[in-house]
């Protein structure tokens, strides 16, 4: 069995040296890089060969890649690198890596064409000026063969170790047994569907209720399928920390006694040891000499079966390397990677980039996937604010200040043309966009000439402008361009409505993607919005719970519509008090907004001062949220007032007597406002279901998530009171879980 390694990966493993340096330096975009390569190769003669596929073996290694170009007439192989700014600012350790790659290609070419020697050229193409700086050397074939052998030999011990571990991993996973005595109700059904999706290389949408063990029920079948389907990596993606911890625990249980390597990717701000320092060797001691110490740290990391945040920190500090970037390196050598959605789905997602570069076969598990539509929209939305432009211009150096002045004038013209508080523009504002791109180029040129930190206000606007410009390049009917005015300030936004066009490539690259949640109904909403393939499978998993465990009652004589809220407060207070006195204990009461919550809580406290109550506050800190949840103790009594869709509407676990009931005084519909109305209109044009996709489905999904806090285990019993007459409508009822037995709430009074 050969170990396949790309030329770039081989050289990055063996030839990287010196500091980790993440000071922002202006580099070409991917599109500019492609265009730059095309420009250079287009300048060459008629016999010039571009993108030359090369491969060669050394022991167990199969090394392959594509050389940028070869000119047979000159016997010259070229490696093309695009850059922006001063050639002298390219770090020496970067050039060292570039030479290493080129010499490997030189050896592979000599071996393939049986050449005695070859001319090598590193071509650095300046995107700004179009000029080429060429570094040349001539090497004998035997020299290059020796260099190649040395590179491979330094990698081969690691490769043989990884090959042996992969073989042992696959052998262990082929005989993997479920870690518990038996499957829970619904868990086997979920596991079978996930296994079949991986066996057939399809995507799966799985609606699976809380309490069946979704994490183990999805991870086990993927690992079981991995040897047969030659799956290299399993990515478990979750929106919240508790979901990621469950995945780490499940992977540790399933992988016990096997060589399965599990990695947690934490957010950089949480993993950073020196938040007051910049990510380069002149500032941070953990960046200084990072690549020189990385081999020892990488080897030491293998002693940990689970490389969670704590383990990465331990290894990183022991070897004086940055724990966060050690984690990024170990992603190449791990089997199960647990992290946030953005590591795979974002425009510049790290794991997606690595999978493309290394041709990994990946199975993706997306937990709490009902969050994906809103999260994906935010990934492909960008907003610019006039106040931020003013702050950036005030801090800009002279040339950038002049360019930002042109942006200001173009923005003023836009202000005059569009006087309404909110409106959707018929097209992108070309004059402003041209000025914005020119300003970004001016700031880029400044950085190229004078590398160093930018003023924070200027840097923020610069990054926002780059993101805005990238989205402008792909602007189409999947997004809106809207303009909002608020006094003297205004904002221009490219607002994604349908993320499907951006996500289709992610689903296409993965061998299989399973999206699961307790609330994925109706499935076609998620399939349409996310761009899932046409052959995506759907399963609605049986619940382990029965209607005897959860009494669901509808208070259909109360309307919580905005115009009826004042009239709803008194009957809601009496309904809650009646239920509480009938069965004292811990309850959550959900409302559609903080205003509504505060009005309801004030009247409730006035009428029933003997019933303990506590409120979710606006912008609560992590400690304040923990304090709110700490009130829910076994044997406790009282009502916690919370906002539906907020921190306490999902992702919290209060089993047994910690929570025995919930009042949901809202249908959960998003606010009717100009932005949502534009979303409704665009979704109606795209899918013919504007109201449902904008309001109804997202609203009811939040209701079901909140209700799901009550019954968490087979021993739990509780009550959910749905307070609004619209819960009686058939179109709403059909979106509620099948296992609920829905009755009438007694009239308040």
TrEMBL record:
<keyword id="KW-0547">Nucleotide-binding</keyword>
<keyword id="KW-0238">DNA-binding</keyword>
<keyword id="KW-0234">DNA repair</keyword>
<keyword id="KW-0227">DNA damage</keyword>
<keyword id="KW-0411">Iron-sulfur</keyword>
<dbReference type="InterPro" id="IPR045028">
    <property type="entry name" value="DinG/Rad3-like"/>
</dbReference>
<dbReference type="InterPro" id="IPR027417">
    <property type="entry name" value="P-loop_NTPase"/>
</dbReference>
<feature type="domain" description="Helicase ATP-binding">
    <location>
        <begin position="173"/>
        <end position="425"/>
    </location>
</feature>
<keyword id="KW-0067">ATP-binding</keyword>
<keyword id="KW-0479">Metal-binding</keyword>
<dbReference type="InterPro" id="IPR014013">
    <property type="entry name" value="Helic_SF1/SF2_ATP-bd_DinG/Rad3"/>
</dbReference>
<keyword id="KW-0004">4Fe-4S</keyword>
<dbReference type="InterPro" id="IPR006555">
    <property type="entry name" value="ATP-dep_Helicase_C"/>
</dbReference>
<keyword id="KW-0408">Iron</keyword>
<keyword id="KW-0413">Isomerase</keyword>
<dbReference type="Pfam" id="PF06733">
    <property type="entry name" value="DEAD_2"/>
</dbReference>
<keyword id="KW-0347">Helicase</keyword>
<comment type="similarity">
    <text>Belongs to the helicase family. DinG subfamily.</text>
</comment>
<dbReference type="GO" id="GO:0004386">
    <property type="term" value="F:helicase activity"/>
</dbReference>
<dbReference type="InterPro" id="IPR010614">
    <property type="entry name" value="RAD3-like_helicase_DEAD"/>
</dbReference>
<keyword id="KW-0378">Hydrolase</keyword>
<dbReference type="InterPro" id="IPR006554">
    <property type="entry name" value="Helicase-like_DEXD_c2"/>
</dbReference>
<dbReference type="Pfam" id="PF13307">
    <property type="entry name" value="Helicase_C_2"/>
</dbReference>
<protein>
    <submittedName>
        <fullName>ATP-dependent DNA helicase</fullName>
    </submittedName>
</protein>
């Amino acid at each position: 069995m050969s170990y396949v390694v790309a030329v770039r990966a081989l050289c990055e493993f063996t030839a990287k040296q010196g500091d980790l340096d993440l000071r922002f330096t202006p580099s070409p975009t991917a599109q500019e890089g492609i265009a730059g390569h095309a420009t250079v190769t287009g300048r060459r003669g008629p016999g010039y060969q571009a993108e030359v596929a090369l491969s060669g073996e050394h022991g167990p290694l199969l090394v392959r890649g594509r050389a940028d170009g070869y000119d047979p007439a000159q016997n010259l192989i070229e490696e093309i690198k695009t850059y922006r700014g001063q050639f002298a600012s390219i770090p020496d350790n970067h050039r060292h890596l570039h030479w290493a790659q080129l010499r490997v290609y030189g050896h592979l070419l000599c071996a393939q064409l049986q050449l005695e020697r070859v001319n090598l050229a590193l071509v650095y193409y300046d995107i700004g000026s179009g000029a080429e700086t060429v570094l040349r050397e001539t090497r004998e074939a035997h020299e290059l063969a020796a260099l190649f052998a040395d590179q491979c030999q330094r990698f081969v011990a690691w490769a043989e170790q990884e090959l042996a571990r992969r073989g042992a991993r696959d052998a262990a996973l082929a005989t993997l047994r479920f870690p518990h005595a038996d499957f829970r109700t619904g868990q086997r059904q979920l596991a079978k569907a996930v296994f079949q999706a991986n066996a057939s290389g399809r995507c799966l949408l799985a609606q699976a209720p809380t309490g069946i063990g979704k994490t183990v029920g999805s991870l086990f079948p993927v690992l079981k399928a991995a040897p047969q389907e030659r799956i290299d990596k399993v990515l478990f993606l979750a929106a919240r920390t508790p979901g990621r911890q469950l995945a780490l625990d499940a992977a540790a249980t399933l992988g016990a006694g096997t060589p399965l390597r599990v990695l947690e990717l934490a957010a950089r701000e949480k993993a950073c040891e020196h938040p007051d320092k910049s990510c380069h060797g002149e500032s941070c001691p953990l960046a200084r000499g990072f690549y020189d110490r990385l081999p020892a740290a990488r080897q030491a990391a293998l002693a940990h079966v689970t490389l969670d945040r704590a383990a990465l920190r331990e290894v990183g500090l022991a070897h004086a390397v940055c724990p966060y970037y050690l984690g990024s390196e170990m992603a190449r050598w791990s089997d199960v990677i647990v992290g946030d959605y953005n590591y795979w789905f974002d425009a510049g997602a790290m794991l997606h980039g690595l999978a493309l570069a290394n041709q990994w076969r990946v199975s993706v598990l997306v937990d709490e996937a009902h969050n994906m539509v809103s999260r994906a929209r935010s990934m492909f939305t960008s907003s610019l604010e006039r106040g931020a432009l003013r702050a950036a211009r005030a801090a800009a150096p002279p040339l950038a200040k002049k360019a930002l002045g042109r942006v200001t004038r173009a923005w003023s013209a836009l202000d005059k043309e569009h006087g309404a508080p909110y409106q959707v523009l018929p097209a992108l504002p070309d004059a402003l966009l041209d000025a914005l791109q020119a300003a970004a180029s001016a700031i880029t040129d400044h950085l190229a000439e004078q590398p160093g930190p930018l003023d924070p206000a200027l840097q923020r606007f610069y990054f926002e402008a780059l993101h805005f410009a990238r989205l402008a390049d792909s602007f189409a009917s999947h997004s809106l361009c809207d303009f909002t005015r608020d006094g003297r300030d205004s904002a221009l936004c490219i607002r994604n409505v349908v993320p499907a066009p951006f996500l289709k490539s992610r689903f296409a690259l993965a061998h299989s993607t399973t999206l699961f949640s307790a609330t994925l109904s109706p499935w076609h909403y998620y399939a349409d919005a996310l761009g899932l393939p046409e052959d995506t499978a759907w399963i609605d998993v049986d619940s382990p719970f029965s209607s005897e465990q959860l009494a669901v009652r509808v208070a259909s004589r109360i309307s919580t519509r905005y115009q009826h809220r004042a009239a709803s407060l008194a009957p809601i207070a009496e309904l809650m008090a009646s239920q509480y006195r009938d069965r004292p204990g811990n309850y959550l009461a959900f409302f559609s907004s903080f205003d509504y919550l505060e009005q309801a809580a004030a009247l409730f406290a006035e009428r029933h001062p003997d019933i303990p109550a506590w409120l979710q506050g606006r912008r609560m800190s992590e400690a304040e949220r923990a304090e709110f949840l700490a009130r829910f103790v076994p044997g406790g009594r009282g009502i916690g007032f919370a906002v539906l869709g907020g921190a306490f509407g999902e992702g919290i676990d209060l089993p047994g007597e910690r929570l025995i009931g919930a009042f949901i005084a809202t249908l959960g519909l998003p606010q009717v406002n100009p932005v949502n109305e534009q979303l409704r209109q665009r979704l109606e044009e795209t899918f013919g279901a504007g109201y449902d996709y904008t309001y109804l489905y997202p609203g009811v999904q939040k209701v079901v998530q909140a209700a799901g806090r009550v019954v968490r285990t087979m021993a739990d019993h509780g009550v959910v009171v749905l307070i609004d007459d619209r819960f009686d409508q058939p179109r709403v009822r059909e979106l509620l879980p099948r296992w609920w037995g829905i009755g009438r709430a007694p009239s308040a009074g």
